Amino acid sequence: MRLAGTFIYHSPVRSARHASMRSDSLGNIRPTYIKRIALQLVEDHPNEFTDEFEHNKKRVAELTDVRSVMMRNRIAGYVTRYRKRREA
Predict the structure, then answer these.
(1) Which residues make beta-bridge pairs with 6?
(2) 16, 27, 64, 82: most buried, per Cβ within 10 A?
(3) How far apart are alpha carbons 85 and 76 in whole angstroms?
């Protein structure tokens, strides 16, 4: 908020009341391209993936040409979460 040349900073830190209200209600929002690649991999290679992140990370690296470590980890994380939900 600007008032006659002064700047008032509003801290992004929330009170404990706000933190406790949203702890279980928010989930991970992933880009569509991460989900699309992950689901395509699971569909094409259903027996290659498990519910262990480290194993899935290695399999994603072997089965794709993704160069970014962050993107590989996000894909592997979504595959892991997808497999856990499907098996439950």
Answers:
(1) 3
(2) 82
(3) 14
Q: CA torsion, points 31, 33, 35, 37, in degrees to nearest 10?
A: -160
Domains in the chain with CATH codes: 32-88 (1.10.60.20)
C-beta separation of 63 from 48 below 8 A:
yes
| DSSP conformational letter for 3 | E
Q: Is 72 exposed, middle or buried (0-12, 13-18, 19+ CB in 10 A)?
A: middle
- Which tokens belong to 9? 């900073």
- Radius of gyration, CA atoms only, the chain: 19
